[in-house]
């Protein structure tokens, strides 16, 4: 397995531990609402920017599909201990959690 899946209720543990939160959606999606603390690095622009994602990062998208693809790609580049937010921002909000809007984390 290239990464570990996290459920939204598990994300707080990783946030408190200082894990980097990387939102792989496109900038317009990110601006409309993202998990607090997440930084935008679109999957479409990953190539050449892999070093910006630290080992142990939590990858986030809308549903968990693109972030899972990103984790698999990064694992092939040698990254370790990557996490994928299962359900993405949709799952996050389904649990009653808020998103941050705008281009700042």
Automatic annotation (TrEMBL):
InterPro entries: GlpE_sulfurtransferase (IPR050229), Rhodanese-like_dom (IPR001763), Rhodanese-like_dom_sf (IPR036873), Thiosulphate_STrfase_CS (IPR001307). One of its GO terms (molecular function) is thiosulfate-cyanide sulfurtransferase activity. Residues 15-101 form the Rhodanese domain. Pfam families: Rhodanese. Gene3D superfamilies: Rhodanese-like domain. PANTHER family: FAD-DEPENDENT OXIDOREDUCTASE, OXIDOREDUCTASE. This is Rhodanese-related sulfurtransferase. It comes from Deinococcus soli.
């Amino acid at each position: 397995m290239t990464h570990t899946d996290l459920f939204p209720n598990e994300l707080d543990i990783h946030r408190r531990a200082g894990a980097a939160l990387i939102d792989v959606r496109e900038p317009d999606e990110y601006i409309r609402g993202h998990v607090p603390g997440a930084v935008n690095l679109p999957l479409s622009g990953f190539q050449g920017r892999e070093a910006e994602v630290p080992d142990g990062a939590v990858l986030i998208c809308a549903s968990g599909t693109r972030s899972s693809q990103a984790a698999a790609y990064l694992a092939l580049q040698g990254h370790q201990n990557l996490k994928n937010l299962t359900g993405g921002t949709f799952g996050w909000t389904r649990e009653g959690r808020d998103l941050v809007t705008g281009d700042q984390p």
